[in-house]
Design brief:
Number of domains: 1
Number of helices: 5
CATH superfamily: secretion proteins EscU
CATH topology: name from scop
Strand order of the largest sheet: 1-2
Largest sheet: 2 strands, antiparallel
Radius of gyration: 15 Å
Structural class: alpha+beta
Strand content: 5-15%
Order of helices and strands: EEHHHHH
Length: 103
Amino acid sequence: MTNKAKRAVGIKYSESEGDKTPSVVAKGYGDLAEAIIASAQQNGVLIHEDPYLSEFLTTLDLGQSIPESLYYVIAELLAYSYALQGKVPESWKQSMPGIEEKI
């Protein structure tokens, strides 16, 4: 496999589930990466392309939580994706009253 091979990593975060840390739910290279991306697009999942982040995330096992060193960057991506969709996480509503009017 060359460094130019397409790769994809899916992460999931759910405030309603017990673990509040995003975890890896899908990963693959080449044709599998293309299938992951196509599935995400078909299901309305936002896609962020970052070769450095995806390179690191592919080293994690499926189901593994992201490491603490990535909390900030993943939090920014999640916040941005929520804003793009016009959504406000419940925890934001509680800690920042009136946030819904600003998005």
